[in-house]
């Protein structure tokens, strides 16, 4: 079982533009980070289809989805995504790392609140079986997992944009970690690099 | 004539590790940024050959060197590189952007001090003729040129390492710039991505 952290950044390392929140999950201007996911330009107001990715982007997504049996994300990402409208879009359960357990979603939604990355991983491993566990963001949860030595593989998609503001994946991260390039594929909308975390 | 900014960063965006200076030009631990340039591990103390790059790394270097008729770098990089031992390693003159003109090198070295990025570009263009002008770093000079709209192409090499400290390419950079992916090639030691700056 592999723990794979997956996220998209801009060329300057941002995982969102400024003011990411429900209704604009990737912040102002951050839609460009996910052109590759949507198969091209899209807007927060609608007219996008998360299954519209094509070519190398489609293959990258499909390969990840095929591997992954359970997903972990942070509370900030969960809320910025508008709780995905109450329906878990991931294949397998989604464990949401949070300190505030009061408004936990009903277990039938496929969402579960957990209090820390370690606990999330423990529970995700149980349900993933032979499949892998994905840590899908946000930046803070990925940093925590990387710093704790819990990540086996880092799948970074880089969108061809310099955002100049927002939340950075490696903001405040002070560990020195060697990586090994597993695979690099590209479309016109992103470069997808998978790294093995060397221990 | 194309103005191409070329630099290597870590996965977390650093162009040097901490404490970059003459004798350790890429900072502590920063040697790993240039494994791809040296064809593998090397040390500041010696035993490395800047012409030892192979495969996709060699091709990336050769393609850049073939195109470039003049190079620009910042004073910090010039000094951190130990003034390249007094011998210009670049094909064509090197213009060094600096505010301190007092200890300018002799023109016969192929090094010339200039007072700003704009002046450097003007003079580089004159000598480059049909060939391109490269802005080879450091981070500050590339940020200045990008912010001033002077860069046509950004050639970023990404080394498979998270440094966690040092100088970041996009530190303090607040512009929003769209890019277009021209080309992505990889070796085991780096991924080389060339972007066109969209205007």
Descriptive notes:
The structure is a homodimer of 199-residue chains. Chain A has five helices and eleven strands, in the order E-E-H-H-E-H-E-E-H-E-H-E-E-E-E-E. Chain A has helices at residues 35-38, 55-67, 75-80, 117-128, 139-147, and strands at 3-10, 14-16, 68-74, 94-97, 111-114, 132-135, 153-159, 161-162, 167-168, 177-186, 191-197. In chain A, the strands form two sheets. Chain A has an eight-stranded mixed beta sheet, sandwiched between helices. Chain A has a two-stranded antiparallel sheet with strand order 2-9. The longest helix of chain A has 13 residues, at 55-67. The model of chain A has no long low-confidence stretch (mean pLDDT 95).
Task: Provide a compact summary of the structure.
The structure is a homodimer of 199-residue chains. Chain A has a single domain (3-129, 137-191), classed as Dihydrofolate Reductase, subunit A (3-Layer(aba) Sandwich), CATH 3.40.430.
Notable characteristics:
homodimer; 199 residues; Dihydrofolate Reductase, subunit A; 8-stranded mixed β-sheet; two-stranded antiparallel sheet; 11 strands; 22% helix
């Amino acid at each position: 079982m592999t723990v794979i952290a997956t996220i998209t950044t801009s060329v300057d390392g941002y995982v969102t533009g400024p003011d990411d929140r429900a209704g604009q999950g990737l912040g102002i201007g951050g839609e460009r980070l996910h052109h590759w996911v949507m198969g091209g330009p899209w807007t927060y107001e609608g007219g996008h289809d998360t299954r519209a990715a094509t070519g190398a982007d489609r293959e990258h997504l499909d390969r990840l989805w095929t591997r992954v049996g359970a997903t972990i994300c942070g509370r900030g990402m969960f809320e910025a995504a508008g709780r995905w409208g109450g329906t878990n879009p991931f294949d397998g359960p989604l464990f949401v790392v949070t300190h505030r357990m009061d408004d936990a979603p009903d277990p039938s939604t496929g969402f579960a609140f957990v209090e820390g990355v370690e606990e999330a991983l423990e529970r995700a491993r149980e349900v993933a079986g032979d499949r892998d566990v994905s840590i899908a963001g946000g930046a803070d949860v990925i940093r925590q997992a990387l710093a704790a030595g819990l990540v086996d593989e880092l799948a970074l998609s880089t969108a061809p944009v310099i955002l100049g503001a927002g939340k950075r994946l490696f903001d405040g991260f002070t560990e020195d970690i060697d990586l090994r390039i597993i695979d690099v594929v590209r479309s016109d909308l992103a470069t997808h690099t998978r790294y093995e975390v060397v221990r």
